[in-house]
TrEMBL record, chain A:
Membrane association type: Multi-pass membrane protein
Pfam families: BPD_transp_1, BPD_transp_1_N
Protein name: Peptide ABC transporter permease
All residue ranges annotated as the ABC transmembrane type-1 domain in the record: 97-313
InterPro entries hit by this protein: BPD_transp_1_N, MetI-like, MetI-like_sf
Keyword Oxidoreductase: no
SUPFAM superfamilies in UniProt: MetI-like
Source taxon at top rank: Bacteria
Family stated for the protein in its record: Belongs to the binding-protein-dependent transport system permease family.
Key words, A-Z: Cell membrane, Membrane, Plasmid, Transmembrane, Transmembrane helix, Transport
Localization per record: Cell membrane
Residue ranges of the TM segments: 9-27, 96-124, 136-160, 180-202, 248-270, 290-316
Provenance organism: Deinococcus aetherius
From TrEMBL, chain B:
Taxonomy, superkingdom: Bacteria
Lineage: Bacteria, Thermotogati, Deinococcota, Deinococci, Deinococcales
Signal sequence residues: 1-25
Keyword field: Plasmid, Signal, Transport
Protein name, per record: Solute-binding protein family 5 domain-containing protein
CDD domains (UniProt xref): PBP2_NikA_DppA_OppA_like_4
Residue stretches making up the Solute-binding protein family domain: 88-476
Pfam families in the record: SBP_bac_5
Entry's family note: Belongs to the bacterial solute-binding protein 5 family.
Length: 323, 589
């Protein structure tokens, strides 16, 4: 198991290198340059554009720029300089990482807590009225994009005279020290993004859970267990659910990269301080090292998520073993 | 009384009289705006505004960033500033100034007793440092080195004594005073990032990154930096050393605190405004009806319209150097451009795209700019498709095969691309209206959408046929010379005029006679110190512009702002215009 993990980890290095080269090429293939965005400003002249390009090393051939970046990452763990923010990429991402992870974890937790039991319920009570309602709501949740759900919630809050229409805090609490009042204010804002992002996930996950439970329920070993006269509860929890949850473990692993790209639009709409909009901005403005680092982070998370999922599967499913 | 004397002094100085002013008491009294609804306020309160994105740095000269500009405006001042009502230049950090009779030497006397927000005195050294080490430093990303080189020669900055600074110009430049709106920076905080302090020229860009300690950012503006929470909020507090007082002598600003919430999405900004978390918001014509409706229904805010001097009037331009030679020939023909002007339905654009919140444009000068505007309304013509058709017929551009589209030559339709920005609230609608009306005149237009931030670089690349774009109006046409002078860096609809090297002489041989005239007018006006002669020159330019239409201006949008009823003394906040900052007058009722 340990050798397997090590082998997988080592295998990531060439994969990541190839991904970085591809990403950098794609970023470079975009038309225009970083300095284009400034041209509309009367303070900007062509000399300034040339000076900025020189200062940032953009006058060098692309391969040199890429080589320097890779070398910096390998030797100094330096992920380059954010043109847009005038500071190292690592510190820019670091500013937002905390809230991004926090919001993602809360949403993930919310999704699972709602979706797994609901999926099981709809599977066991396939033809019940409540299950049909849950299924219907699931479809609706799937059909409504998260940003639209967020906008609807915001409109609703506004309609009832609320002031928590975006961001994570009321203006007064943004830079206040932690206190119970601040926590309450956070919760008062947090439910909108959690509900809006989570709802879409709930629907998908619920369908997945339902399908795999139904799948498992028709298996021979369930019928055997039932025939043996095992109590219903034991059949469900010990045999059915444990097997039905396998595909979800893989799904959970795959959901790690959504930390970065999953919340772009909703973060813009709800003004959340997460990494998503940073990725969008850096791509649009050709802030190449920030974009590259974020794409790499995303790729890395995907690989790690896969690995974790495989390990978790091995732990959960006795049939899966790695030599 | 004091105010009038200062004004008289300034006026004299502007005319060129070498008058040395007697020192006045230090603070500047802000009075005389009764017609703008300004009254004496009371101290206290917090005012919350929005920023479209996080500031990229806190060093105004290190990054070109409008969000930083909005903050910097509250933290720093220039030597001179605009009058809120007339846009005339008046004293700011400089208490008074004189211009030598030859128009080449400007001497500024600094405001007595002016202090930085950390208590250090503002001296001539700070001004010399700001201009020499930062603004004229070609490596400063948001510096302005180009404007301090006239005819290839450097402007000199000299300290005369601790409170007097002199600028010596290689040649007269009457618009030079406007450059003095540039923010003055504290030498004692920034010298370590400058060449004078032993750093490299480019190091100035690294001063004051966005995670700088707030106490490092020192200015003379109404507010000082208190804190910055990444991606969420910038907080400023009142600068106790600010140098302005109101009519009663109460120190400005009235507000204790100024907050900027960082909200990227325009809809989210409106939501926060409606929820009462934001106190003032600049909005577009498209958002006007909804907010105005709520105001009328009793919402606790007002939506104010104001005719604009600054701000970008959209225009259409035809590429005189289009790749298709036949098109280039037609585009270069003034009769074609005039014919197409009659097919531009300005009224409909103003009514439907701007919800009526726009007026007719000037030609390079905003109609509200009384100082320079020449009335060219007549030359704008009227929307008349028949007349357009007849004019095109007269040019020989006729529909011979009966498909409803005129032919530019045998078997080839008069058809071209209109490049416009898809991510703008007004361009797509304007482009569609143009496409529609032109089609009725037998001219086929294909819409080609790009991102707004690429409009100018696309324009300058020459890879377009017709373009929908906008350039801002400024108080003095001299400031827009690179746009409107043929061969200028931004005169991109006739790129073949541009000089082989920056700063060289443009290709005069390829200029149309009227372009040559405009070229000379701009050169003359740049050095003419006599105000009435300059006015005559710029009037002539506007008429030439209106008749020959290097570009065809479409409309002049109004400024619209929404403000909570809790506050008084609101004047439309123009945005990032150095030397125009009405926020110190705002007070909480």
């Amino acid at each position: 198991m340990l050798t397997y993990t090590l082998r997988r980890l080592l295998g990531m290095i060439p994969t990541l290198l190839v991904i970085s080269a591809v990403c950098f090429t794609v970023i470079k293939l975009q038309p225009g340059s970083f300095t284009d965005q400034y041209l509309e400003d009367p303070r900007f002249t062509r000399e300034t554009a040339a000076a900025i390009s020189r200062q940032l090393g953009l006058d060098q051939p692309a391969i040199v720029q890429y080589g320097r970046w890779v070398w910096g990452v390998i030797t100094r763990f330096d992920f380059g300089y954010s043109f847009l923010q005038n500071r190292p990429v690592v510190s820019v991402i670091g500013d937002l990482l905390g809230w991004t992870v926090f919001i993602s974890l809360i949403t993930l937790l919310f999704t699972w807590i709602i979706a797994v039991p609901l999926g099981l319920y709809t599977a066991f009570n396939r033809h019940g009225f409540a299950a049909s309602v849950a299924n219907f709501l699931g479809y609706v949740g799937l059909a409504i994009p998260d940003f639209l759900a967020a906008l609807l919630l915001v409109a609703l809050v506004l309609q009832f005279g609320g002031t928590n229409v975006g961001g994570l805090f009321s203006p007064d609490y943004i830079d206040a020290p932690w206190s119970w009042a601040r926590v309450l204010d956070l919760l008062n804002h947090l439910w909108i993004p959690v509900l809006a992002i989570g709802l879409e996930g709930v629907a998908g996950l619920m369908r997945q859970m339902r399908a795999s439970t139904l799948d498992v329920l028709s298996q021979d070993y369930i019928r055997t267990a039932r025939a043996k006269g095992l109590p219903q509860n034991r059949v469900i929890w010990h045999h059915a659910v444990r097997n039905a949850i396998n595909p979800l473990i893989t799904l959970a692993g795959l959901s790690l990269p959504t930390l970065i790209s999953g919340t772009i639009i909703i973060s813009i709409v709800l003004n959340l301080p997460t990494i998503g909009p940073l990725l969008y901005d850096s791509l649009v403005n050709k802030d190449q090292y920030t974009a590259l680092t974020l794409l790499m982070l995303s790729a890395f998370l995907l690989l790690v998520g896969n690995l974790l999922a495989d390990l978790a599967l091995a732990w959960a499913d006795p049939r899966v073993r790695y030599g | 009384m004091l105010d009038r004397r200062t004004l008289a002094l300034v006026t004299l100085a502007l005319v060129g009289g070498a008058l040395s002013g007697t020192a006045q008491a230090a603070p500047k009294k802000v009075t005389g705006y009764g017609n703008l609804g300004i009254t004496d306020g009371k101290p206290g309160g917090t005012y919350t505004l929005v920023l479209g994105d996080s500031p990229q740095s806190l060093n105004y000269y290190g990054v070109i960033d409008n969000n930083l500009g909005l903050i910097a405006q509250q933290l720093f001042d220039g030597l001179v500033e605009f009058n809120y009502a007339t846009y005339k230049v008046e004293p700011a950090l400089a208490e008074s100034w004189t211009v030598s009779p030859d128009g080449k030497t400007y001497t500024f006397k600094l405001r007595q007793g002016a202090k930085w927000s950390d208590g250090q005195p503002v001296t001539a050294d700070d001004v010399v440092f700001t201009y020499e080490q930062i603004i004229m430093n070609p490596e400063a990303r948001a510096g302005d080195a180009a404007n301090f080189k006239l005819d290839g020669k450097q402007v000199e900055v000299k300290k005369v004594n601790p409170s007097t600074v002199q600028f010596v110009l290689p040649r007269p430049s009457p618009a030079f005073l406007l450059q003095m709106r540039s923010f003055v920076m504290p030498k004692h905080k920034l010298v370590k990032f400058s060449q004078e302090g032993g750093a490299k020229a480019a190091d100035i860009n690294n001063a004051w990154p966005s995670n700088v300690s707030p106490s490092e950012v020192v200015g003379t503006g109404p507010f000082k930096l208190a804190s910055y929470t990444p991606g969420q909020k910038v907080t400023l507090t009142k600068n106790p050393n600010y140098w302005k007082v109101d009519g009663k002598g109460t120190q400005l600003p009235y507000l204790n605190q100024l907050e900027f919430l960082i909200i990227r999405d325009p809809q989210a900004q409106v939501a926060q405004f409606l929820a009462g978390n934001v106190d003032q918001l600049n909005i577009t014509g498209a958002q006007f009806p909804d907010l105005k409706g709520r105001e009328v229904a009793g919402a606790p805010f007002k939506v104010m319209r104001s005719t604009a001097l600054f701000g970008s009037p959209p225009f259409v331009a035809y590429n005189f150097d289009a790749k298709d030679a036949a098109l280039a020939k037609v585009f270069g023909d003034v009769r074609f451009r005039r014919a197409m002007q009659s097919a531009l339905n300005r009224e409909r654009i103003i009514d439907t795209v701007y919800n009526g919140l726009a007026g007719l444009p000037g030609h390079g000068v905003a109609p509200v700019n009384k100082e320079w505007y020449a009335n060219t309304t007549k030359q704008l013509g009227a929307f008349d498709l028949k007349a357009a058709g007849a004019a095109l017929d007269a040019l020989g551009l006729k529909d011979t095969n009966g498909d409803g589209i005129r032919e530019i030559s045998r078997g080839k339709n008069l058809e071209f691309d209109l490049t416009y920005a898809t991510d703008s609230s007004v361009y797509p609608a304007i482009a569609t209206i143009i496409q529609n009306d032109f089609a009725k005149a037998g001219v086929k237009v294909n819409l080609k959408g790009i991102l707004a931030k690429n409009l100018l670089s696309t324009g300058q690349s020459g890879d377009w046929e017709m373009i929908l774009h906008a350039f801002g109006d400024q108080p003095d046409p001299e400031l827009r010379k690179p746009i409107w002078q043929p061969g200028g860096a931004l005169y991109y609809w006739h790129r073949s005029l541009q000089p082989a090297q920056d700063g060289g002489t443009p290709n005069m041989a390829r200029m149309a006679p009227w372009e040559r005239q405009v070229y000379t007018i701009f050169n003359d006006a740049a050095t003419t110190t006599d105000r009435s002669k300059r006015k005559a020159l710029y009037t002539r330019w506007q008429l030439l512009f209106a008749q020959n239409l290097p570009v065809t201006p479409l409309a002049k949008p109004e400024n619209i702002g929404a403000i909570s009823n809790k506050y008084g003394n609101y004047i439309y906040n123009l945005g990032v215009i150095p030397g125009y900052n009405p926020v110190p007058l705002i007070y909480q009722k």
